[in-house]
Amino acid sequence: MSALWVKDAGIMTYRVFGVVIGGYALWTGIVPLFGLALHGFGLPLAEGMLISSMLGVLVYIGVLIWGFAAPLKMRPASVILFLGAIAMLAAAQLAPAEIGA
Amino acid sequence: MSDQPNSTFRPSMNWVHTWAGLLLGTLIFTVFWMGTLSVFDHEIDRWMQPSTRIVASAAPVDFDAMLESVRAEFPEREITEAGFAVQSERAPLARGYFAFAGGERETWIVNPETGERLAEPGSLAGTGFIYPMHICLLLPGIWGWWLVLIAAIAMMLLVVTGVIVHRKIIMDFFTFRQKKKLRRSSLDLHNLAGTLFLPFHFMIAFSGVMIFAGWYTSLVWLTLPGEAADRATILANAGDDYGYYSREAAGEPGATVPVMPLIARAEAIWSERYGEPVRADYINAGNYGDANGYIWMRRSYPERQVNQGVDTIAFDLTNGEMIVDFVPTPARQVQRWLAGLHFIQFDHWPLRWFYFVGGLAGCLTIASGFVFWTASRRSKIEAAQPFKVRLIDVVSVGSVTGLIAATCAFFVINRLLPVDASWNGFERGVLEGLFFFLVWILSFLHAGIRAKSAWAEQTFAIAALALGAVLLNWITTGDHPIAAAGRGLWSVAGMDLVLLAGAAIAAWAALELRRSKPSAERRSIDEAETMPGGAAE
């Protein structure tokens, strides 16, 4: 087992988990943000959330394809993880005031 | 790591397609196979529950009379909640569910035509075992739901990457070289089945995710504190958008008005609103006998529409006043339309058969993908990595033929167990389920022992079990396909015919699989089998 193989395996593991978990975080983060945005445009909150949830899965599929399509580097996974974390944090900050909790 | 993605788009997608299919193939196949069977879950119920084999009747069931019967049967018990499910063409029995003050529960199954109460059918069958296996793999808690989500997302990803991988997607429609080597013919079959039903496979996976789309994304709300998380979760699921109604019990006794006039009122309101006869199909009376008693009912799904509308009406059970008349919002209607695409509860038999065939094509695509992977790599890597090839062989065989054989064994054991069978506290329905899992586990063991012969042998087993199920049904109930069809029991006759067709296809496939063995391997098996006590491997 060469050092190169170990390095490649490590990058692949990071990449797979980064894209899959980061993509999920992005999905769950974007959904409430987009739902709140729709609510801001006058849609009832529950309806906005529902529409956003339904569209969100397509975002996830897109992120998965983009994350795996790029060359074997760590960058896509890192970017996706970063965006996912930002989206989740933003949702958690903005949502309570809007949902009346 | 030679399979890892390189710098171009298509090989990267090929890598994703291969490994997602290989690692999640078992899960996806299980969900797809059980979903395919769930298309005919009520028909499977009729076959596995002979006491419920009755011809559908539109005769209305008097639920007030049912309540009276329950009170007469259990005079010492106090009913606190009652639920009623109205019969339909595919589920011809009316059901009543009763909860009592002491926590006991009773289910009443009634023949709408005669009003006769029927015994518990003694089998979980299609709606109690196969359908739950499809939606949550029968796992406790939320784990099964998440695994099914992963399967659905992976299926969408496989469809998209599959389209990108295949350069000549139009040619795939017309290419199946059955007589070529296994590697070639399995890839042709994979491409053909996958391409032919490509839109269906994406639609069914996408609509499956849409059913619980809000719930799947509600993890983000765990970041919120206390009540905010609860409120947000409800909103994310749009829980107050389904029209569910309930209220706390007052703790004081209250009058109860008859149920049937309230059902008739709700049906009249819906029928006037939609300009066609509409029935209530699920009715729930909560806080029964309490001063805060209520009755909540849901409109039946329209027979000629995809949309599974969730119109509901609730009345105060003490005086009959309307409390809620809920009409779903446009967004909810879109979501229920997508759910309707998946659940296929509308009345359209050709489309129902199309779903069944599309589901089988999905199973065939996954199974042939497994076969292609091992067939294409065996010669290259078996010498260097025999364990890897063997492991994937075992997983493939157990996941595909093992699961199908276990399903057929599930049908066989259903016809063999006595009606009142129980063992170690397990009732008959649970025993059937346990037997299913036992056979499935044994199929993996068999695949591990018999290696390359396992595909053919398990396919033979499927043929034998499917044929055996039909014969046992005939022997134990007298309902052979012609007799069942003559009595108007098309669900039973149809299931028998599908089993017979499945047996014939499995027998043919098993013969083809034996034929496709390399001659050297066949020789070694033949030699081993002629040795005293010799095994093939």
In short:
The complex is a heterodimer of chains A (101) and B (537). Chain A has helices spanning 3-40, 45-69, 75-99.
What key attributes describe this structure?
heterodimer, A: 101 residues, mainly alpha, 3 helices, elongated, B: 537 residues, alpha+beta, 8-stranded antiparallel beta sheet, two-stranded antiparallel ribbon, 18 helices, 10 strands, globular, disordered C terminus
Structure commentary:
- Chain A has one domain (3-96).
- Chain A is 87% helix and 0% strand.
- Chain A has three helices and no strands.
- In chain A, helix 1 (3-40) packs antiparallel against helix 2 and helix 2 (45-69) packs antiparallel against helix 3 (75-99).
- Chain A starts with a helix and ends with a helix.
- In chain B, a hairpin with a 6-residue loop joins strand 3 and strand 4 (117-118).
- Chain B folds into three domains: 1-32 and 121-223 and 349-381; 58-119 and 224-343, no CATH class; 384-518, no CATH class.
- Chain B has 18 helices and ten strands.
- An eight-stranded antiparallel β-sheet of chain B has the order 4-3-2-1-5-6-7-8, with helices on one face.
- The longest helix of chain B is centred in the C-terminal third of the chain and has 33 residues, at 349-381.
- Chains A and B meet through helix 1, helix 2 and helix 3 of A and helix 1, helix 5, helix 7, helix 8 and helix 9 of B.
